[in-house]
Amino acid sequence: MISTQARPYIDASVPVLREHGLAITQHFYQRMFAAHPELNDIFNLGNQANGSQQQSLAAAVFAYAANIDNAGALQPVIERIVHKHVSVGIKPAHYPIVGRHLIASIAEVLGDAATPPLLAAWDEAYWLLAGELIAAEARLSERSGAVQGELRMLTVMERRVESADVMSYYLQTPAGTSPGDFLPGQYVSVAVDFPGEKLRQLRQYSLSDEPAKPWWRISVRRAGDAATPAGRVSGWLHDNLKQGDTLLVGRPFGDFTPTVHASHPIVLLSAGVGITPMISTLNALVETGSRRPILFAHAARDGRHHALRADLSAARANLPQLRTVAFYESPLETDRAGADYQHVGRMDLGRILAEGDRDAEFFLCGPMGFMRQQWEALLALGASPARIHREVFGPELLDHLL
Ligand code: HEM
């Protein structure tokens, strides 16, 4: 609980910090990286360049303070951060560094408005949240049996082109076995070293096959230009990682984990590379011989950008009750209507949901615009919000809190 002395300062300054949020966060990252250049290795410099993490860490602290009496709203966000932090290897010793630079940045950006009691109140709020995160991260690490941030060397047994911009890598231990169990929907951190710059970068990729297979598979979309920070890791993987090579990979984490062992209907909705956790789930439904009604709908630009189609065909052959629908935004001449795709344009749930689907459990993964649109469409069609699950990345995570 935040103290009664701190409370009025937090309440009064939340709108001010929200207004100056981006300036504070930019200042904070510059300050922190200048003092601790080693932290460049754990942060995603692509997110730094496009501003998304610049909003998320500080925005999360402000959102936390703004919602301090509303634990229910915060819990899913905290859970998401905890999984991400454990995956990238955040340690308790990192928290005083972030805290010190965040509070100093509030002071430096707000100037005279940042009075000592106001800064003390924010220090208190930061440490309340930090304490919660540290405790939850320790519990999750213990449960997973992993050392936080531990990376293992895995071997690429195969790589496969999935679409114009997605490549799959099949990973095993050096002994040729599966690297371990996971839940469909979980992701792993992958580390790539750039020795010339003494820089390491981590990225998270969903595991795109199901857990019973003797491999892990990641399906990586080339994110923009390899020369830009955002596209660096995926570009490097596409251009360099070949069969027989090794890759540093962390343990699986993530709390977006569609239930496989259930009997009620399930609807999996994805766009673009958001298809990866959905295919993992679908393959697990195949593996367990599921009888539940399944609707798998995907939105792609065209047939060249429709990844993991071989998995979809195999699932259709094995699950007679499976309905699959593809929406192509602008089909190519070579794309076959009715076979490769069913509808032209963006995903429109009104055209595909049947009466029984309203009671299904829905899972959504894709770019933010897609997620918002489908979320609203599902609510309008009468689906219960408690049954809609979303994989949200970056600052949008906090959208409903700010
Ligand atoms: C109260 C303190 C903190 C809050 C509220 C916070 C909040 C967040 C949020 C909201 C995300 C995005 C999660 C997602 O996209 O799924 C994130 C990711 C991340 N956080 Fe934290 N964080 C805190 C402390 C720390 C500390 C102490 C470190 C380490 C110095 C750290 C390093 C990272 C990294 C490396 C990521 C992954 C994203 C990226 O690479 O840019 N965070 N954090």
Topology diagram in text:
Layout: H1 7-19, H2 21-35, H3 45-50, H4 52-66, H5 71-88, H6 94-110, H7 116-144, E1 152-161, E2 166-172, E3 187-194, E4 199-206, E5 216-221, H8 232-240, E6 246-249, E7 266-271, H9 275-287, E8 294-300, H10 309-318, E9 322-328, E10 343-344, E11 361-365, H11 368-380, E12 388-391
Helix pairs in contact: 1-4, 1-7, 2-4, 2-6, 5-7, 6-7, 9-10
Bound molecules: protoporphyrin IX containing FE.
Task: Describe the protein.
It contains eleven helices and twelve strands. The chain has three domains: 138 residues, Orthogonal Bundle (Globin-like); 98 residues, Beta Barrel (Elongation Factor Tu (Ef-tu), domain 3), CATH 2.40.30.10; 133 residues, Nucleotide-binding domain of ferredoxin-NADP reductase (FNR) module (Rossmann fold). With 402 residues, the chain is α/β, with parallel strands linked by helices. It is 39% helix and 18% strand. The radius of gyration is 22 Å and the shape is globular. Strand 3 and strand 4 form a beta hairpin. Helix 5 crosses helix 7. The strands form two sheets. It has a six-stranded antiparallel beta sheet, covered by helices on one side. Strands 10-9-8-7-11-12 form a six-stranded parallel beta sheet, sandwiched between helices. The mean pLDDT is 90. The two termini are 20 Å apart. The structure holds protoporphyrin IX containing FE. Protoporphyrin IX containing FE (HEM) binds next to helix 4, helix 5, helix 6 and helix 7.
